[in-house]
Design a protein that fits this description.
The chain is mostly helical and 186 residues long. The chain has a domain of 100 residues. It contains six helices and no strands. Helix 4 packs parallel to helix 6. The longest helix has 38 residues. The termini are far apart.
């Protein structure tokens, strides 16, 4: 039913429809008419604009620059004794190596009987290291205050004394164990 109405519509305007193709020189005639109107139309391909890629590159450069400036302006908020002076660097190296040697020695001589003692010492050592982390932040904020430097050195000393005492107790326990084994008769 609807197709009949559409067909009737097209038959009614059949004479008015343009079904012919344009002539070969149609484009030339069209351009001549435009020139007569004093408007010149160029049929060159569109040139690529470098403006948009330059804006993108500039934006990336700005973001990159801001990021680098943020890292330079905000260094880490804690520093070690090594940053204070060469003498403090030597002090820090001395204590760090002494503590490392003591820890290795404790690991070598510890036994099942001294396991609890070693675990307790490691917990105390972790607390002292956490205190040292706070002292590093204080050193950064105080601008190398001598009281903070002194507290950092005392922290190293406490760690060294703690490990020394634990090592002495482990050796005492091992000596007692050895002397009891020697005195027992099979």
């Amino acid at each position: 039913m609807k197709t009949n109405e559409v067909e009737k519509l097209f038959e009614g305007i059949k004479d008015q429809l343009d079904i012919h193709e344009p002539s070969i020189n149609h484009q030339i005639k069209f351009l001549e008419k435009l020139k007569q109107q004093n408007k010149v139309v160029q049929l060159h391909p569109k040139k690529t604009s470098w403006y948009k890629p330059l804006k993108i590159a500039a934006s990336i450069a700005i973001v990159f620059g801001i990021t680098i400036m943020a890292f330079i302006a905000n260094p880490k908020e804690e520093i070690d004794l090594a940053y204070v002076s060469p003498q403090m660097k030597e002090t820090q190296s001395f204590f760090t190596s002494a503590i490392q040697i003591q820890l290795e020695e404790i690991n070598e001589v510890s036994s099942k009987e001294t396991k609890g003692l070693v675990l307790d010492a490691m917990n105390q050592l972790e607390k002292l290291e956490a205190d040292y982390s706070f002292l590093k932040k204080d050193l950064f904020q105080s601008g190398n205050d001598k009281r903070v430097i002194s507290a950092m050195i005392k922290n190293f000393q406490k760690r060294a004394h703690l490990l020394e005492a634990v090592l002495q107790k482990i050796n005492d326990i091992n000596d007692i164990k050895k002397s009891n084994n020697e005195n027992s008769i099979l």
